[in-house]
Amino acid sequence: MAFNIDGQFDLHVRALGLANQRLELLADNVANADTPNYKARDIDFRAAMQSAGENAGQNGGPNPNLSGELPMTVTRAGHLPSAGGGPNTTNPLYRVPDQPSLDGNTVDSQKENAAIAETSVQYQATLTFLSARIRGLRDAITGGR
Amino acid sequence: MSLFKIFDIAGSAMSAQSVRLNTTASNLANANTIAGSAETAYRSRQPVFQTVMDNSAGMAPESAGVRVAGVVETSAPPARIHEPGNPLADADGYIYMSNVNPVDELVNMISASRSYQNSVEVLSTSKELLLRTLSIGQ
């Protein structure tokens, strides 16, 4: 079995990228909390990760976690399938406000702060997993010495 | 590395909110300023915020932070007070107060300060994440 060191980290790297993208959107929302007519945006983290995981299952080898690129659509027989590895781009969605405000702004500071805390914990969890994976690989290489 | 972009976003928000705090300070300082005519009376200044749209990458425009599009003077008429003894009084004995409403300004100040604190919080969260990312695998 070919050992692909890139695939060892793939899913975690994708999770980091998504968490990063989400944090960026949330920071944008907080920055524009007082801008008239600004519409708050967010991404559905679960759905985005699920689509990444499904793709992993389809083109993955023996271990579905080892591979998993977001595939490019192939519409003709002559098209080359993409090798993947592109940037994580998940379309952001607009948030539906609980309490619409007169100036057309849909940012809810409490929600943004809660989402930032949530994403930050997810990010740190992924970092921990990644560190553990790296430590495991290093142990395997050095034989535990 | 887009965690650095969050620094830019939070930084733009902090500078916009500090402009708002500055105008609030200016308005409160001039709350009791008087003038000899309605035209020269001090009018309360308010910043107008605008989202910065970053579409340099040629993709769908992604907003990136906020900026102050301008500072407008409110249109409320200044109060006209009859005070003939005042050296600034016009021919009819009237002076003109500024149109600043101190209650509005104080509420504005609290809101600006809370928004500023939120941005600082975002900044410190992303700084912490960035530092942890740097120490990955150690």
Tag the structure with descriptive keywords.
heterodimer; A: 145 residues; mainly alpha; two-stranded antiparallel ribbon; 3 helices; flat; B: 138 residues; alpha+beta; 3-stranded antiparallel β-sheet; 2 helices; elongated
Walkthrough of the structure:
The complex is a heterodimer of chains A (145) and B (138). Chain A is mainly α and 145 residues long. Chain A has helices spanning 5-31, 45-59, 109-142; strands spanning 41-42, 93-94. A two-stranded antiparallel ribbon of chain A has the order 1-2. Chain A is flat, with a radius of gyration of 19 Å. The two termini of chain A are 25 Å apart. Helices cover 43% and strands 22% of the residues of chain B. In chain B, the strands form 2 sheets. A 3-stranded antiparallel β-sheet of chain B has the order 1-5-4, with no helix packed on it. The longest helix of chain B has 33 residues, at 102-134. Chain B is elongated and about 80 Å long. Chain B starts with a helix and ends with a helix. The interface between A and B is medium-sized, with 30 and 37 residues.
